[in-house]
Amino acid sequence: MSNVSIVGAYNTEFGNFVLKDKISGLLTDTRTYYDLLIEAGRGAIRDSGLEAKDIDAVYVGSCSPGSFINQEHVAPLATEIDPALRFKPMTRCESACASSSAALYNALYAVEAGRARHVLIIGVEKMNLLPTAQMTHVLSCCSHWPSEGSKGWTFPMLFAAYAKGYQAHYQIPSEQLEHMLYTVAALCYKNGAENPLAQARNGPATVDAIRKLNQLDERGRCKNMMIAEPLRLHDCSLVSDGAAALVITKSANVSNRHRAVEIAGIGHSVERLAENVRPNMYELMAGKDAVAKAYAEAGISAADIDLAEVHDCFTINQILSTEALGLSKDGRAGFDYLEGRFTRADRVAVNLSGGLKSKGHPVGATGASMHALIYKQLIGEAIGVQARKADIGVAFNVGGSAVTNCVTVLRKLS
Fold it and tell me: Is residue 193 part of a domain?
């Protein structure tokens, strides 16, 4: 147990905040990286009931701002949140899509060590200023470049390898696997429709609606095209702009326990970067290790969890993450989703925010967003669908192709 609590959180709206002139091709950035970072930081400090002068340090999680917006050295941008933050220590953390979970963990270590009393964590990314091909290249730099990125492997292809491995290991017919994946996507779209901050609030929220998109329209186009077999467009998360932020302190410092959520346990486990040297491409081996560490530190089991935000960068990873968390037996998560489990009415709800599939996936902001949304659930101020029961939540954030695995158990303090 860390004896550290989240005492404030903020999530910006996620979306595509870029306007493109169809004639000239010129882009207008309607909500910049700088705007998003400042909005999230100010919002979290305000939500915590503290003032900027009370913040002792800032950690910023961001995946690849140098490539996305031509700006490195981004942590000092937090000085613009408030003049009182000038001269405070500020550090950027990078772990691909788990960058802001890594930032949170580093902030946690600073508080535990006694170097800081109150710490602000911000996750932020701006992805939509780049054309698709260039954006895909930037993300591919988070893979193992010699064996994957340089060979043309994209992240849909890397997670498709997990889908194929899972299908082969458990001998799941292609049509049944497709039904499982569409069920996961539909659930996230349904939940995201009620999240006012979600990027996709009108996605196809039934399996039939998704399946209809496989058909060619009158122009011969498919709205759910195959990206990397067996993963289609609606199996993939969104390209997003957005930010989220948290404020943490030692639990002993908390004045309003009703708005505090304890970081009860964490697990941070890293897999080998290249997929071709990993065994068992049908399970998240490092993810399971991170889960075991987090549960042991928190003194809980999967049976104690009320809600989870899992890293559904692709629908197959929601299935794999559900199993890694112990919410389903190995090889059974897809069937559990088919049977209607993990909805808002179930004993444990998964991705009430809409997940990365619907909420959006600004890669550097995703970890902070997961924690912010669970925090809001546990204090009864849910953004979107409120969980039926909310005492213990878990965030499972992944960086790269299931390489960096960050699992956090959050527990209501009051």
Answer: no
- Residue 37 belongs to a domain with what CATH number? 3.40.47.10
In a domain, 243, yes or no: yes
Which domain, by its residues, includes 37? 4-132+239-248
Question: How big is the chain by its Cα radius of gyration, in Å?
Answer: 20
pLDDT in tens, 116-136: 999 999 999 999 999 999 999
118, 144, 268, 361: which one is catalytic? 361
Other beta carbons within 10 Å of 151: 12
Q: Scan for tokens 């009393």, then name that residue.
A: 117
Taking every pair of C-alpha atoms in the chain, what is the biggest distance, in angstroms?
A: 64
Considering the domain boundaries, does residue 362 fall inside one? Answer: no
- How many residues are recorded in the chain? 414
What pLDDT shows up at residue 1?
A: 66
Q: Within 10 A of 316 (CB to CB), how many other CB atoms are there? A: 26
Structure token digits, residue 44? 């979290």
DSSP percent split of the chain into helix, strand, coil, nearest 5: 40, 20, 40
Report residue 206 as tokens. 């039934």
pLDDT tens digits, residue range 388-405? 999 999 999 999 999 999
Residue 25 lies in a domain: yes
361 is a catalytic site residue? yes
CA dist 128 and 262 (Å) reads 35
Annotated active-site residue in 97, 142, 236, 313:
97
Cβ(159)–Cβ(314) below 8 Å:
yes
Q: Total domain count for the chain?
A: 1
DSSP 8-state symbol, 200: -
Q: Is residue 169 flagged as an active site residue?
A: no
Number of CB atoms found within 10 A of residue 304's CB: 16
The DSSP output letter for 387 is P
Q: How far is CA 404 from CA 102, 130, 229, 280, 332, in A?
A: 9, 25, 24, 17, 24
Distance of alpha carbon 404 from alpha carbon 59, whole angstroms: 18
